[in-house]
Each structure stands twice: as structure tokens, then as C-alpha cells.
Amino acid sequence: MQIKDGTFMVTGGISLIGSHVTEQLLENGAKTVILFDNYSLGSTEMIEHILKEERVRLVRGDITRVGELYNALEGVDGIFAIAGFLTLPFSANPELGITVNALGHVNVLEAARYRGVSKVIFSSSVATYGDPEPGSIDETRPFRFNTMTPPGVLYGSTKIIGEQLGKLYSERYGVQSVSLRYATVYGERQHYRGVNALYIIDTYDKLMAGERPRIPGDGSEVHDYIHVADVARANLMAMESNVTAEAFNVATGTATNLNRLYEIIAEIVGTDLEPEYGDREGAVRVTTSSQLDFSIEKIGRMIGWTPQVSIEEGIARLIKWRQGQA
Ligand SMILES: NC(=O)c1ccc[n+]([C@@H]2O[C@H](COP(=O)([O-])OP(=O)(O)OC[C@H]3O[C@@H](n4cnc5c(N)ncnc54)[C@H](O)[C@@H]3O)[C@@H](O)[C@H]2O)c1
């Protein structure tokens, strides 16, 4: 499907990822972009520049209500199904988290089916691997959950459900569906809802307040930080491709530990404050491994996507945005 002149819905359209997808849709000549969001987690404050654009329509609606989706989907070619509860809101409200992430996605697919929408791109997560064994992690890796805490397991389970629903609707009803398994997403308009990216913004805020940031454990915990512009580009490329009923890792393939992340932030901010080490009481942790190796071979081969923003550049962009807000 072509982006140019197409009509798209972005559920969770005012979110971190949804707003970047929208920007790229507009840059690539989409005719209309419908932002569908119930404002439960996001707010329109940071996307005023997007809302000024005539091709953008904001619909306040809820994916747990199929009728609202159906009404808003008239004439839509493709849906970016991004609305969802990340681990922190999920652990605060598991009942709603399950409803939105799992049942909400059935509604999206069902409304798409009856409205004749061609394709749905689902925001999944590498949480579908749970706490994987060391070694290269490709899309065939099973969900390893026995070493994890409940919030991560529950969140990952809902993403597995979402992916399988997409496959089912693709095979049974011809609604094309691709699931994108994001690693830790960060970037401009960063929020405080993702457990792993939280560390970046927390560290920055502490340093700006002249306080010593706290690094959990000994700082050897690693994550694969993927910039939101790369994530948005993966969404558009998945929509444009002819691929259906597949899941892909959307990661850099490079792990960065918390000590290195601190160095990058401290260098940009220009501080010589030393961090403290130790866990924060009551903090939600998902995985704490010191090795992580996501394979991005499949998405490169089938969709042609590779990441473009390095961690150093991405963090610099995030901090520049944050400074512009002050
Ligand atoms: N940020 C990450 O690191 C990351 C990693 C992996 C996967 N994901 C997935 O990507 C998606 C978006 O992530 P994000 O960081 O942009 O999230 P976010 O928290 O910024 O946005 C979620 C959006 O969904 C909206 N929403 C929630 N419930 C809704 C409902 N019932 N109906 C309509 N809208 C609703 C919220 O108001 C919010 O704007 C989520 O599905 C998340 O699980 C994110």
C-alpha cells in the first residue's frame, strides 16, 4: 500500500510513537491522518504543531468501544494500532491493561474487517520474549517468563495475544496484519511510562536538578534503545510492504548498559557528578540481564528496514527537545 494519498488511522495517535508515525505520514504525502485516542495517557499539549495541519483529524475515542472505532474508520486504508498500556500503567491497572491491549485489539481488527481496511500494523514488543536466554534473539524465540515479575509477564502476554489475533484476522478474513516488536523506544516527546526508557529521562532530570542520579544494581543491566523516528519509519515501511501475518524485531541489535547510558547523558549535559549505585525501593523492574542481542535480519530482508539513529545522536536529540521545553 502506498502512503502517498492514503487515509490512515493512528490509534493512540497522541502518544510518543503515534505522534512520530503521524509526522512521517504527513511528510510522505498521506491525504488524511485520523488520530484516535481517548487521552487516558497522552495529552495534545506536545503535538500542537501536528494538529494545526489540515490533513489531520483528531477523534476522541476508545478502542475498547468497537462502535467508536467503526464510526471513525470510514474510508480508511490502513491502521497503525499503537494505543496500549505500557508496563507501568499496566501494573497500576492490570484489569484495564488487559482490556485495552488484548480486547481493544480485537475491536480494532473487527472494525477493520467490517470497514474493509486493508492493513493493520500492530505495536508489539520484545516483551513477547520475556526474559530470553543469552544468544541471538530472532523472531522464533519462545516466551521465557519463569524468571520474571508479574507486570512484565502480563504485559508480554497481551502483546502475544495481539499478534496472534492479527495473524488470525489475516488468515481468516484477509485483513493484512504485521506486528512490530519494539525494543526500548526513546526520543523527543519522551514520557515516564516505559520502565526501561524511564532511566534516560530520570537521569537527565536529576542532573539538571544538580542531584546524583541512581544507577540500579551495578549498572551492567543492558537494553536495546531504539529511537522513535526509526520505530515510526518501520511502521510506514511495514504498511507499504506486501508482507502479512508476520512479526519483526524493531531494534538496533546493539545493547547499551546503564553505565554507558549515564556517560552519554553526562557528557551531553556537561557534568562531572558521580552517580550513586543501588536499587530504588518499589521500582518496577522487568529484566536485568547484562546481555541482549536482538536479530534484525528478518525485518531487513523482508521489509528493507535498518535503524539509522545511533544512541549518541538519539539521546542528544531527546535532550535538545527537553531543553526546548524548559
Ligand atoms: N515506548 C516503548 O518503549 C514501547 C516498547 C514496546 C512496545 N511499545 C508499544 O507501543 C505502543 C505505544 O507506545 P508509546 O510509548 O507511544 O505509549 P504511550 O503511553 O505514549 O501511548 C499510548 C497512547 O494510547 C492511548 N490509549 C490508551 N488506552 C486507549 C484506549 N482504550 N483507546 C484509545 N487510546 C488509548 C493513550 O492515551 C496514549 O496516547 C504501545 O502499544 C506500547 O505497548 C512501546
Features:
326 residues, alpha/beta, Rossmann fold, two-stranded parallel sheet, 40% helix, globular, binds nicotinamide-adenine-dinucleotide
Give your account of this protein's structure:
There is one protein chain. Helix content is 40%, strand content 16%. The strands form four sheets. The protein has a seven-stranded parallel beta sheet with strand order 3-2-1-4-5-6-11, with helices on both faces. The chain has a two-stranded parallel sheet with strand order 7-10. The model has no long low-confidence stretch (mean pLDDT 94). The chain has a domain at 7-186 and 226-251 and 293-308: Rossmann fold, CATH 3.40.50. The protein has helices at residues 16-27, 48-51, 66-72, 87-92, 94-115, 150-173, 198-208, 228-240, 258-269, 297-302, 311-325; strands spanning 7-11, 32-37, 56-60, 78-81, 119-125, 176-182, 184-186, 214-215, 222-223, 225-227, 246-250, 256-257, 276-277. It contains eleven helices and 13 strands. α6 (150-173) links the parallel β5 and β6 (176-182). α1 crosses α8, α3 packs across α5 (94-115) and α5 packs parallel to α6. With 326 residues, it is of the alpha/beta class. It binds nicotinamide-adenine-dinucleotide. Nicotinamide-adenine-dinucleotide binds at residues 11-12, 14-18, 37-42, 62-64, 82-84, 86, 100, 104, 123, 125, 182, 184-185, 191, 193-194, 197. Nicotinamide-adenine-dinucleotide is lined by residues 11-12, 14-18, 37-42, 62-64, 82-84, 86, 100, 104, 123, 125, 182, 184-185, 191, 193-194, 197.
